Amino acid sequence: MIDTDDKDEFHEAPEEPEPPRVRSEPPARRASLADDADFERLIHDPSPEILTAVAADQRLTEDLALALLKRRDLRRETLEALSKNSGVAKQRKVRLALVMHPGTPRHVSVPTIRHIYTFELMKVALLPSVPPDVKRAAEEVLVSRVATIASGERLTLAKQGSGRVAAALLLDKEERVMQAALSNPQMTEAWIVKALKAEVGTERLAPAVARHTKWSFRSDVKAALLANRFTPPARMIQLAAELPVNLIKDALRNGRLSPQAKNSLVAVLEKRTS
Q: How many domains does the chain have?
């Protein structure tokens, strides 16, 4: 089990007729709670007004807030009120539950993500019930942290993180982290091709991909390996014999291969086109 107790930390449009005026409804009044209110009972109340009052009340405890957040029928007003309740909103577990609640407004959940711990963010990014934009925000925060977190944490993210997060670790300075990212079940061919095209940091990745039992046989990966100067020479010559001639020419044009690799590719190209 992962221990999450460690901190890391948008021609002018033509005028349109004015729409008919609709009488606006008065803002909803927030219910007031008695001094002796039974919060354990009120968190199960069917009234949205009561629930919003409970969420805003400074007497609400962390345990009661977490129990309230288990309800999937909460309205955005209730969730907003809870996010502004200084008594519980800063509690780590409450923050996480708020972010993971499907009804939490984006202007609440997305900024809160920056204050969530690394492995909790990984959980947010992987949960199917979390909205896609919230997942993406969690992944972006995780990617921004990979350069500063410990080796063991990077290894866990490489193994268990989402595809986007694992892709950020394909260029890790540690071999074991890079290998774990390559084996991540959510890794895709597109992420590996993108990593192989990076300007720096592929000296460990290219040889590993060139001999990988899964990725080394993918067409787009082969093309990326052909153009990477760290691909082992024997594998590069083999790829040049298999891939279309236009890909060899593209690899020669990119200017990133070593003179020795270019000479090898030119020799294969001349042989194939003679």
A: 1
